[in-house]
Amino acid sequence: MTEQTTPQWKTLDKDLNRLARLEEATMHASRPLVGVGISLVFVSLAAVAAAILTGGATQSLAVVVAAAFGAYMALNIGANDVANNMGPAVGAKALSLLGAIAIAAIFETAGALIAGGDVVSTISKGIIDPAGLADTGVFVRAMMAALLAASIWVNIATWIGAPVSTTHSVVGGVMGAGIIAAGLGSVNWSTMGAIAASWVISPLLGGIIAAGMLAFIKWRVIYVEDKIAAARTWVPVLIGIMAAAFSTYLALKGLKKVVAIDFSTALVIGAATGVGIGLISVPFIRHQSNGLENRARSLKTLFRLPLVVSAALLSFAHGANDVANAVGPLAAIVYVQHSASVAGQVAIPLWVMVIGALGISFGLVLFGPKLIGMVGNQITKLNPMRAYCVALSAAVTVIAASWLGLPVSSTHIAVGGVFGVGFFREWYVERRARRFHRSLPPESLPRQERARRKLVRRSHFMTIVAAWVITVPAAALLSAACFLLLRAIGF
Which domain holds residue 229? Predict the structure, then answer.
């Protein structure tokens, strides 16, 4: 009896295994569609909420459609921009991917809702003459085209794995729609020139400062005889500098709702906070360093917690600053539909900020891991010390740029910091190899071997730089096409 039924069971097991493999493959193939489905639900809910909240306004259909576009833009910000803040911490293994997503979602939302801008410029960054968009119908169409075009471009950049500036995407969108609506003469080309200059200034400043910080750590902490004693001296100083930079930035951004603070006062607040936090961190670092071996690998432990805190603060600052820029066109449309006039600056309704904040969280959770992994792992190898240099560079560069009045992108600064750390390591490793004759001179090696020894992946470098350069033109072309389409359908 057993001998007769055994072959039947073997056949059934084979069939069940085939079905199981087919089911597993189907689930794997359909997994990306889950995120798309949730995104569509969120966009739909944003549109429904806008319809409910503006039901009594005239021409509320424009607000409903714009709310859907704004939700789509917020999703793309979460998928792309936030990776720049969390990628280094994940790449350095100071945070798990899940932990990074949770921290970023909380602090991005808090930054947007607590310290987000009260008002936003309706003509983003002053690049279009308001007189050219005085007609409310043209203005609404231009803002909708800019919002949709910026969203599409950031979506494309995320898909190809390139971290781009969402603010520059919105700027390009406004410029493209403004040119179609009011002509080339309506563009403030000097402002556009300054924005173009930031493509070079932002990553260069971020890279130089990050490389300088890493050089300082190597010089004063890693390559000394007593590494632990050096770390006890200098790590609190680095923590104090980070605290000073963030306190200055948050004083300028977060406290403006309570009291007006000029740059000098913010610097004093930042300096006082930095000194206080630096002194408080002295016993903490001393306790953390007890029992550590006197080697460079042991020092990574001392940078993990400061790196996590810095990543959270970067997310808060990003939520406070960039979300308002992204939902600015939506806020402008809401104002125009209620007042039937165009204003230079408008207040951002709470529900608009909520859409932006929640959209960032959903976009980060659903689509953020791809860019987080790329920034954290695929450009160059990061550890807690290198990643801390990147975070410190981002904070210090933003403050320095604000003081100098330079238009910079937080995205470009953070990614430029990663590149700066990587290129500095390449130079330093080659320099030490030549000094100690540990390898053949690079010129004597085959070309393929020289390329293999590079510590920064050139393919990612070229892809990211190309995406930065074409962000504004690409968003402008998409916006012009969206504007013409909206006009053709009579919207």
Answer: 36-488
